[in-house]
Description:
This protein is α+β, with helices and mostly antiparallel strands. Helix content is 36%, strand content 30%. It is built from three helices and three strands, in the order αβββαα. It has a three-stranded antiparallel sheet with strand order 1-2-3, covered by helices on one side. A hairpin with a 2-residue loop joins β2 and β3 (39-46).
Amino acid sequence: MKLPTVSGKQVIKALMKAGFRPVSKRGSHVKLKKRTPTGTLVVIVPDHKKVSKGTLRDIIKDAGLTVEEFCRLL
């Protein structure tokens, strides 16, 4: 599936729907965490107008989601 062009705010909003919560912000980057039965997932999202495709793919992978699951959350 093709990755959509999204902003950092859209990525953060989608991850919050998946159970992540923002815990801190440093510069233009937001750290989100989610507790799971096997541990804690941590994802860093750049709060930019456009998140690059490679960065977005890494964020989705780090969040334990598939591209299809992420697109449904948008």
